[in-house]
């Protein structure tokens, strides 16, 4: 049976927890010291569903291993920004990390294939691709970068554009627009192709950047916008669905290799379960968040998606990225999405 959000850690648990305390440490520790004590970090806001599901996975791993393994959980950038965390997991400073595909592409460039602008039309295409040929390709790229990666990706959502000064409905509205994007080249390329002025900023610095008008707007999924309280510093949200982004759970290869085979199996099983349950959480939230965000003051706008895609084609966005990714990656993508360029 799938665990519901109500039966797991509540959103209030995360908000009430001490900022510097790993969530798994809140529970009673096993009487016997763990044989393996590893760290799992995220850069996502405390109330995002991925944190609740990974906290549950920590507990299940400890229980299923008979106390042999303790996975201490540090959510919400407690151990550093996204780019800091990538460096740490590669060096072994932390052993496990949940990271957006867009950000992991800075060390595994092929992972950005899921971020091609306006490629996926709906979630049916997303999961057929990510649980199929696209996911197989991306996992191979991440492993070539020296990391271990879980089989199942979680859902970081279709991304929407938010703004403060004016609504964004067409590419013309983006001309010269200062928009925050993740630290990921394909995002910068997409918005530059549409005439905007993209700025790469880590998520833990985004609220302040919007509040101080360092940037005019940003783009994220509804879950992230609500969890990060970005509605407090933005007025308009345009439903563009311009990019879908996954979460990948990655591990330091040396640390994972030290685990005996049965413990590796437990870890993989429970992290995959967490990802699948998080997908269901996000699906439920996406059905209610529009009304919630509207009530909190965000005005929803309709995008001319065909105009955006036409603008990208005219700018050579698809042609350029097809050449950068190469035929293997592009074939995997178009097998699911159909022709793009």
UniProtKB/TrEMBL annotation:
Keyword GTP-binding: no
Highest rank taxon of the organism: Bacteria
Any one Gene Ontology BP term: transmembrane transport
Main location: other
Coiled coil start-end: none
Record carries keyword Signal: yes
Compartment list: Cell envelope
A Pfam entry, by short name: DctP
GO cellular component: outer membrane-bounded periplasmic space
Family designation: Belongs to the bacterial solute-binding protein 7 family.
NCBIfam families: dctP, TRAP_S1
Protein name stated in the entry: ABC transporter substrate-binding protein
Lineage, uppermost ranks: Bacteria, Pseudomonadati, Pseudomonadota, Alphaproteobacteria, Hyphomicrobiales
């Amino acid at each position: 049976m799938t665990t519901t959000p109500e039966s797991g850690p509540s959103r209030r648990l995360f908000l009430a927890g001490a900022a510097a305390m790993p969530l798994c440490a809140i529970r009673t520790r096993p009487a016997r010291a763990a044989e393996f004590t590893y760290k799992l970090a995220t850069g996502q806001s405390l109330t995002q569903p991925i944190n609740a599901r990974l906290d549950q996975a920590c507990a299940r791993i400890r229980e299923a291993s008979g106390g042999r393994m303790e996975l201490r959980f540090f959510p919400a950038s407690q151990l550093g920004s996204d780019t800091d965390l990538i460096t740490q997991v590669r060096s072994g400073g932390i052993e496990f990390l949940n990271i957006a595909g867009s950000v992991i592409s800075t060390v595994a460039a092929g992972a950005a294939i899921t971020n091609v602008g306006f490629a996926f039309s709906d979630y049916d295409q997303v999961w057929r691709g990510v649980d199929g040929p696209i996911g197989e390709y991306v996992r191979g790229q991440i492993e070539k970068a020296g990391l271990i990666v879980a089989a199942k990706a979680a859902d970081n959502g279709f991304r929407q554009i938010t703004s403060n000064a004016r609504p964004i409905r067409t590419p013309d509205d983006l001309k010269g627009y200062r928009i925050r994007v993740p630290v990921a080249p394909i995002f910068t390329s997409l918005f530059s192709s549409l005439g905007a002025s993209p700025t790469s900023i880590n998520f833990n610095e985004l609220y302040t950047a919007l509040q101080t008008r360092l940037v005019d707007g940003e783009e994220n999924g509804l879950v992230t916008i609500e969890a990060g309280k970005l509605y407090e510093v933005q007025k308009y949200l345009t439903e563009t669905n311009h990019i879908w982004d996954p979460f990948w759970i990655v591990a330091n290869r040396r640390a994972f290799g030290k685990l005996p085979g049965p413990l590796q199996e437990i870890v993989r099983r429970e992290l995959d379960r967490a990802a699948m349950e998080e997908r269901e959480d996000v699906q439920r939230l996406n059905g209610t968040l529009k009304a919630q965000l509207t009530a909190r003051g965000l005005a929803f706008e309709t995008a001319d998606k065909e105009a955006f895609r036409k603008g990208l084609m005219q700018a050579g966005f698809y042609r350029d990225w097809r050449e950068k990714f190469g035929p293997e990656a592009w074939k995997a993508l178009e097998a699911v999405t159909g022709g793009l360029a």
